[in-house]
Every structure is written in structure tokens, then in C-alpha cells.
Design a protein that fits this description.
Mean pLDDT: 78
Distance between the termini: 6 Å
Low-confidence stretches: 109-137
Structural class: mainly beta
GO cellular component, one term: nuclear pore outer ring
Protein name: Anaphase-promoting complex subunit 4 WD40 domain-containing protein
Largest sheet: 5 strands, antiparallel
CATH superfamily: YVTN repeat-like/Quinoprotein amine dehydrogenase
Number of strands: 31
Keywords: Nucleus, Repeat, WD repeat
Strand content: over 45%
Subcellular location: Nucleus
Number of helices: 2
Amino acid sequence: METRLDLPFFSKITSVSWLYPNSEDTCNDSDLYFIVGTSGQVKEVSLWSVKNPDFLSDESIANSYSFLKGASFNPQNDVLCLEPNGKLGVFAGSSEGEINFYQFTNSLNDDQLVETSLEGCLLLENPILNDFSASSRKASCTAISSQLNLNLGSSIVACDYAGFVSFIDGSEFVVLSSKDVDLMGLTDIQWKTSHEFVVSSLSGFIRIMDTRSKNICVQTFQENDIEQYPVTAIDIHPSLKHLIASVTGDGKLFVYDARNNKRVSAPPRYISNEYGENDINDLKIPYWDVQFNKRSPDNIVVCSEDGILTNFEYKISFIDGSEPIQYNSNSTDFIKGAVSINSMDINNYIEKNIVLCGTDSNSILLRSLNA
């Protein structure tokens, strides 16, 4: 299953994110909701829905798979990142360092609301921060990560291009503190455990931070020893939290084992033409996003500047301590296009296991990873 939606305006889709399920089991939801952030001519945060493909036949999906647009907002600056905060709402980070919180004021599980219109689902725009970097200049907010803690509300961290990490109160939505963790800009941030999170940087470093530690940084990895290409995105294994996947600006995929302080790289990606097979890694085409497939954790999905969505298969060996992660096959290209795929998000709750992609050419791509 593959479908494409072209937005009615020309903008770069910088971030896409599936929303949390309405019911306890997403397989029971007739509609799936997601958020799209754009930059360029039209700066927008918009809510969309699609029918749950688990309830549709393959023929119905191919012929009548449709998107429904709901509420939208037009912030003043480019939207660079999105992060759902449970079922409460969505955070959006901007190119000028602002973070807005869009609160859900109606239940997405309201049958009348779903059947008639999505208007009103996103109602409140609440700017919580203007000078994000806590420095003399505004720096772009590049990533936000939120985790729900039992009886403690949300723990929220965000990073920026000035090298700062900010800690946000999940109930009052105010910045508690900011820390300078890198001389260069930070590109991504992900919670690892209830007390630890991971950040990546333009300088090629990956740092594990512990909120309980006085020095906060407890472990550091570097992507390249000679050429320092930026780490563009990271992701944490859904169950084995010591495994960290990362992608770089020169088209490399690495998986770090923080427990054993080791790193392995993915096999080269090849393209075929009239001259035979060529290692596409020689072209140094950037990877922009990476995710573990939570329904099938032996797969890592990445998207790249050349418009290709790629699936890497790997296996974990606990017997050979020198190589805790081994790749058992080359990648498979699911989508190939002429424009960059900037961001993606896998819906891991439904059986068809679909991935949502945002591109440079104002297009939303939807693809089943089971196909």
C-alpha cells in the first residue's frame, strides 16, 4: 500500500508525527490522526486523519485512500520539529527558537466530531518560550522529546542550534532551566530512560545525559574519527534501551551499544545503472531521519536526501561480545523519488504498520512496511 497527498501550497514538510491512539487499542480506531509541520512559503501546523487501513481491503486502499484535513495554525516562523505530548496536545519548535504547545480541547474519539469535521481538535496555541537558547541570540529549536511518567506528568526536553538543552515543566509548560552541552548545534534529542536522554550534534557527537548526575553528560560517542559529519537524527531501541541508532550527513547508519561501548555500521547501499552496481555511500547523500520499527525491532528504517526510504535488517547476538549487532542483509528501497524525504514516523500500532513521510515538494507519502 502506497499513497501520496500533494498539499495545495508549495512548502517544505519539515516534520510529521502520528498521534497517540484514541482507544486503548489502535486496531479499534476507525481513523488515524497525524500532525504535519511546514516551512517556506506557508508555515503551518495542521491536523490530518486517514482511515485505518486495517479496516480497508487492499483494493479500497489503492483506489480511495483519502486524507482529511482538520484544524491548522500558521505560526510566524518555520516549523522545524513536532512532538506529541501524550493525548494532551503537540509541541512545535520553530526556526526562531519558539516552542508552541497545541492543546487538544476535544476528544478525538468523539464520533460526531470524527464524522463531521476535525475543526476544534486543535484549539489552543500556547507559546511557552521565546528565547529558546537562553543566550544572546535566538537559535532554531531542532528537536523536542516528551515522556509520560506515572503520577509525575510529562518530562520534556528540547535542543537547539546553539548547543543548549532546555528542560520544560510538563504541567505549567514553562522552561525550568537550560544547559550548554555542545560547542556546536544539537540536531536531535530522545529520552532513553526515565532519567536519561540522548542528544546528537553537528560536530558528530552523541551524548548520553543523566538528569541525576551533577555533570549531566555520562557517556559520549563520536560518529567519525577523521571527517566529522553531523549526526542528523537518532532513535532508541523500543525495548533494549542501550541500543541507539544514528544517521549522518554523509549517508551512514550506525548502531551504538551503550552498555558495551561499541559501534557497528550498516552495510553500504547500492544503486544499479548501466555501469553496474555502485556504492551509493560514495555519493555521501545525507540521511535525515531514522527509526526502529517497534512492531519488528529487527528492522531500522531511514529516509534520505535522494527521496529513498530504506529498510535495514539486523540481528542482535548476545554470544559474541565483540559484535553485539550484526546486519544480515542489505537494504530494501521502499520509496524512490526525485525530492528529499525530510522526516518520517512509523505507526507501530496497526497491523499494516504504515510509515508517514514528509518531503521537500509539499507532499505527504504513506507506505505500508509490510508490503
